[in-house]
Amino acid sequence: MSFPFDRFIVAALLVACLLLAGRAWLREHPGYDPWTPLSLEEQPGWATPRKLSALRADRGLCRAFLDRSGIDKTALAPTGSDSCRRDDRKVLAAPAAAEIRLSPSRPEATCAVDAGLAWWLRHGVQPQAEAIFGSRVVRIEQLGTYNCRRIGNGTKGNWSEHATGNAIDISGFVLADGRRLSVRKDWKGPVEAAAFLHAVRDSACNAFSTVLSPDYNAAHADHLHLDQANRTAGWRACR
Fold it and tell me: For residues 17 and 11, what is the distance between their CA atoms, to the nearest angstrom?
């Protein structure tokens, strides 16, 4: 009569062992663990996009991520008004932490933009540069983060993410060996340069809510538009 109970104990022990093994595996693979806070060092897994999306919606989570990553999280005082009010504002510090200079230097944007840059540089830009050119990116050229305007510069329609400093436009990359890669000149240029630019565009789609490139329209012929629009269910646009 004790057999059913014995089987229950054995089954319970097996389940406990599986749970312990699963927890140990998740500790070693945090990219697959939705409960482990995002770390810049973790290898991407199925849970990573959800974690990155959460940073866009929760400023506290975003600043904690920057802090864990050794990136300055210092916020600046809010400024602006109405649709162009910037109540989430900081000097972008992720590039400097990755030993990359921005040109022009010290642009201001949201915490989520800085977090996206940190992830993109670590897991997209530098691996692609090293794989394709055998050289690291040391400077990124940018066209700006803040511009109080609507999409398409019209008088009607939705406000651009630039209106709140929640976007950055990237126009070029400079490598340690001196090579310069321009979105305008090289998007359809030499094979290696074009391959790099397309690869970093694709990898940016993992770190940002919106990525628009020359493939989208003529208005983006000279830059990659990266923004952190907070969309329902983490939906992203990548063109």
Answer: 10
Q: Which region, left, alpha or beta, applies to residue 203 given φ > 0 means left and ψ of -120 to 50 means alpha? A: alpha
Contact 123, 94 (CB under 8 A): no
What separation in angstroms does the CA of 11 have from each of 3, 19, 118?
12, 12, 45
Q: Average of pLDDT values for 14-32?
A: 63
Give me the percent of the chain exceeding a pLDDT of 90: 83
Instruction: Count H helices and E strands in the chain, helices first.
Output: 8, 9
For 74, other C-beta atoms within 10 Å of its C-beta total 9
Q: Tokens standing for 96?
A: 């400097």
CA separation for the pair 181, 9 (Å, rounded): 64
Residue linked to tokens 């790099």? 196
Q: Three-state DSSP class for 209?
A: coil
Q: Where are the domains of the chain?
A: 1-33, 40-77+84-238
* Angle (CA) 98 103 106, round 5°: 70
Q: Alpha-carbon distance 113 to 46, whole Å?
A: 21
57 backbone φψ class: left, alpha, beta (φ>0; ψ -120 to 50): alpha
pTM summary value: 0.90
Q: Is the pLDDT of residue 151 over 60?
A: yes
Return the CATH number of the domain spanning residue range 40-77+84-238: 3.30.1380
The two tokens of residue 163 are 């209106």
